[in-house]
Amino acid sequence: MTSQEIRQKFLDYFKSKDHLIVPSAPIVLKDDPTLMFSNSGMTQFKDFFLGYKTPTAPRIADTQKCLRVSGKHNDLDDVGRDTYHHTMFEMLGNWSFGDYFKKEAIAFAWELLTEVYGIPKENLYVTIFEGDASENLDRDQDAFDFWKSHISEDRIINGNKKDNFWEMGASGPCGPCSEIHIDLRTPEEKAKVSGLELVNNDHPQVVEVWNLVFMEFNRKADGSLEKLPAQHVDTGMGFERLCMALQGKSSNYDTDVFTPLIAKVEELSGKKYTGVLEDEKDIAIRVVVDHIRAVSFAIADGQLPSNGGAGYVIRRILRRGISYSYRFLDMKEPFLYKLVAVLQEQMGTFFPELGKQGKLVTEVIKSEEESFLKTIENGLIRVEKLIQQTIADNQKVLPSEEVFELYDTYGFPDDLTRIIAEEKGLTIDEAGFKAEMEKQKQRSKSDSAQKVYDWVVLEEKPETFVGYDQIESETYITRYRKVENKDGEFYQVVLSSSPFYPEGGGQVGDKGVLENATDSFEVLETKKENGLIVSLINGLPKDAGALFYARVNATERKNSQGNHSVTHLLHEVLREVLGTHVEQKGSYVGPDYLRFDFSHFNKITEEDLALIEDKVNKKIKASIALQEFRSIPIQEALEKGAMALFGEKYGDSVRMIQFGSSKELCGGTHVKNTSEIGHFKITSEGSAAAGIRRIEAISGDKSEEYFSNLEKQIIELSQLLKSKDVVRSIEKLIEENTSLKAEVDALKKEKAKEEIGEWKNAYEQKGNKQLLVKKTSLDAGSVKDIVFQLKREIPASVTIILSDADGKPMITVGVSDDLAADYQAGAIVKDLAKEIQGGGGGNPGFATAGGKNLEGLENAYQKALNI
């Protein structure tokens, strides 16, 4: 059975059991403050479990792309070292939202595994929650009783809280779970040791394949448990492990999920994969084929590698793959990007984003490879210098600070530093390095540390966003909670009627005021969390249950929504001018400026930028009225021509924003008419990443301010030049400057001729060689010309010129060709440059050095006389 068939059988089975089959959500989470990535199948359904949203169906099934590389669920360090851990994996799952519970979930799982997939029953074991007295939780007797009707009691194992009480994170939905484990060992191995002894003991052939979670509780911030409004089922089956079991393999990497990728790595590297766990070459191949999946899906879902947040995690995964291939596969040139096509062929049918975004994914990975390989090459030079210095100091241990700087500042892998040091008979200060890593983690934690208390619910009122229609409203606080961070103590509030737009879709959250007759609080930010609009205020009202007046900062909202509307117009114009390959890849919309990232592989010409700006402004001047479809079926919106962005999760009903022919799915706030935008001005265009261009621009008040400042500058220039024709006056100045420069250059040449004649006679005879050490105020260009002439004309000579031109110390050294075997200009200048606190270099015949200490020229002069 192929992996494609295994996946399809799962979905077909649950479809036959009245489950709605839904597509995988994006692997990257954009509107969840608690998670960067989907780390389980239930992530996209969290709001259903908490009761914040109504599920589209009471029974759902899917296969979800998951990534476990950060936080509590982090498998990164295990990848490649065993047969079954992965960064990116698929999780097959079925859910019940207040519909069926333990009995049916257990029956479905058993029927699918044993009858549909045909797994022998004697190879299966199950675990149930044994209870936990500290949490006042009883043994899951119901699960035990239901399992008894399918499997013998001696195959039902009690599991502790760590293994059999599932929690998404420090807080959130949770509950007891029942794991299904499969024993893949040979009959001979089973006869020696019972599978009962190996369940949950990290045996590579006795592995958990499916986890049935019975959601009953919500873990609060204070650690206590409260009952959820309804009971739910959340199951997750590891697709890769299931394929291993059904295809009779002993490793996930031996299944057809990975073998096409491994075959391509073998072809490109010339290395043969043998599947040996301890073999560094095989570990590297497993790392590469695992990591290319994680990185490709993340980029396809809209997350580009970067230096912060989720982008940093993706860059780290990719660099780990590059590092392993560089060290153990001897791959010194980019090659991981060539695996994307294989991945598309394997998974593109079920995950169309891979095909749609294939070119972008390939280009981004290739660019990242080129960049990091340069980092490695430069790092090798730094490591060699560090090793030589350590040896020179008669030490055997590389200092931890320098090793950590290589890792932290320059991105050079610490394990590669370790290997190179060992080859030279050295070690690194392991304890010191770990201490530096811990300091960094603590700094990072302290910067982002925030203590969030539990919600205090005042009364259950419906919570409504009214900000599309008004920026002021009467309201009540329905719930609040305290938040403590490095800036102090604040409160988050949820309002019954909120005009504050929550940060999302690239648009910043609204700020403003929440007040009544006795209290007034500044609204510092507004975000969305678990379906709630949460505003941060700088205090707690005396009477939190009183009537309040919420007012948005009108100026900032006006400018933000003007910039948001502009991004829609800009997106359409970019596709008109550059081509329909252009797709939005990110945006920032604030009151001061807008940033728009889009797929395009070349720098935009000045002519095209001017055309883009002009076309957008024509749409603004055309006074196009907003057409808002506030709740429209997604299929109808797409049929109308609405742009849907890859990497975004849309519901069955969506909001469509239309300005003339521009139609996009969008939840942000917008102007009622394009004429409200005023004027659009592009301020910069450049590369954001491989295959991604970035335009920054302004509109509205900031655009007016820009042209006002420009006008002031022109008036000031006109006054300075004493002419209203500023352009002609500057042209005249340039002409005069060119003429004067020519005169200065002529004078310099004349002065240089005089110096050459004088310097030729100033060489000091030293045996059969000649040395010239001279001070001058000539500029660097003139000195260079003279030195080259002298080293050609004066045989067996070393020429050293010390210049103080423009108040900056400069040392220039020339060595005639016939002394090349005896003297090196680079070595001489490096030694002398120490006196002026500088450095430089060159070739054996010519070298220069600049410095910071002008007074040190005298010391350098005396030192040079003694060469």
From TrEMBL:
<dbReference type="InterPro" id="IPR018163">
    <property type="entry name" value="Thr/Ala-tRNA-synth_IIc_edit"/>
</dbReference>
<dbReference type="InterPro" id="IPR002318">
    <property type="entry name" value="Ala-tRNA-lgiase_IIc"/>
</dbReference>
<keyword id="KW-0963">Cytoplasm</keyword>
<dbReference type="InterPro" id="IPR018165">
    <property type="entry name" value="Ala-tRNA-synth_IIc_core"/>
</dbReference>
<dbReference type="InterPro" id="IPR009000">
    <property type="entry name" value="Transl_B-barrel_sf"/>
</dbReference>
<dbReference type="Pfam" id="PF07973">
    <property type="entry name" value="tRNA_SAD"/>
</dbReference>
<dbReference type="GO" id="GO:0006419">
    <property type="term" value="P:alanyl-tRNA aminoacylation"/>
</dbReference>
<keyword id="KW-0547">Nucleotide-binding</keyword>
<keyword id="KW-0694">RNA-binding</keyword>
<dbReference type="InterPro" id="IPR018164">
    <property type="entry name" value="Ala-tRNA-synth_IIc_N"/>
</dbReference>
<feature type="binding site">
    <location>
        <position position="568"/>
    </location>
    <ligand>
        <name>Zn(2+)</name>
    </ligand>
</feature>
<keyword id="KW-0175">Coiled coil</keyword>
<feature type="binding site">
    <location>
        <position position="564"/>
    </location>
    <ligand>
        <name>Zn(2+)</name>
    </ligand>
</feature>
<feature type="coiled-coil region">
    <location>
        <begin position="730"/>
        <end position="769"/>
    </location>
</feature>
<keyword id="KW-0862">Zinc</keyword>
<keyword id="KW-0820">tRNA-binding</keyword>
<keyword id="KW-0479">Metal-binding</keyword>
<feature type="domain" description="Alanyl-transfer RNA synthetases family profile">
    <location>
        <begin position="1"/>
        <end position="709"/>
    </location>
</feature>
<dbReference type="GO" id="GO:0004813">
    <property type="term" value="F:alanine-tRNA ligase activity"/>
</dbReference>
<protein>
    <recommendedName>
        <fullName>Alanine--tRNA ligase</fullName>
        <ecNumber>6.1.1.7</ecNumber>
    </recommendedName>
</protein>
<keyword id="KW-0030">Aminoacyl-tRNA synthetase</keyword>
<dbReference type="InterPro" id="IPR023033">
    <property type="entry name" value="Ala_tRNA_ligase_euk/bac"/>
</dbReference>
<dbReference type="GO" id="GO:0008270">
    <property type="term" value="F:zinc ion binding"/>
</dbReference>
<comment type="function">
    <text>Catalyzes the attachment of alanine to tRNA(Ala) in a two-step reaction: alanine is first activated by ATP to form Ala-AMP and then transferred to the acceptor end of tRNA(Ala). Also edits incorrectly charged Ser-tRNA(Ala) and Gly-tRNA(Ala) via its editing domain.</text>
</comment>
<feature type="binding site">
    <location>
        <position position="666"/>
    </location>
    <ligand>
        <name>Zn(2+)</name>
    </ligand>
</feature>
<dbReference type="InterPro" id="IPR050058">
    <property type="entry name" value="Ala-tRNA_ligase"/>
</dbReference>
<dbReference type="Pfam" id="PF01411">
    <property type="entry name" value="tRNA-synt_2c"/>
</dbReference>
<dbReference type="InterPro" id="IPR003156">
    <property type="entry name" value="DHHA1_dom"/>
</dbReference>
<keyword id="KW-0067">ATP-binding</keyword>
<dbReference type="InterPro" id="IPR012947">
    <property type="entry name" value="tRNA_SAD"/>
</dbReference>
<dbReference type="GO" id="GO:0005524">
    <property type="term" value="F:ATP binding"/>
</dbReference>
<dbReference type="InterPro" id="IPR018162">
    <property type="entry name" value="Ala-tRNA-ligase_IIc_anticod-bd"/>
</dbReference>
<keyword id="KW-0436">Ligase</keyword>
<dbReference type="Pfam" id="PF02272">
    <property type="entry name" value="DHHA1"/>
</dbReference>
<feature type="binding site">
    <location>
        <position position="670"/>
    </location>
    <ligand>
        <name>Zn(2+)</name>
    </ligand>
</feature>
<comment type="similarity">
    <text>Belongs to the class-II aminoacyl-tRNA synthetase family.</text>
</comment>
<dbReference type="GO" id="GO:0002161">
    <property type="term" value="F:aminoacyl-tRNA deacylase activity"/>
</dbReference>
<dbReference type="InterPro" id="IPR045864">
    <property type="entry name" value="aa-tRNA-synth_II/BPL/LPL"/>
</dbReference>
<dbReference type="GO" id="GO:0000049">
    <property type="term" value="F:tRNA binding"/>
</dbReference>
<dbReference type="GO" id="GO:0005737">
    <property type="term" value="C:cytoplasm"/>
</dbReference>
<keyword id="KW-0648">Protein biosynthesis</keyword>
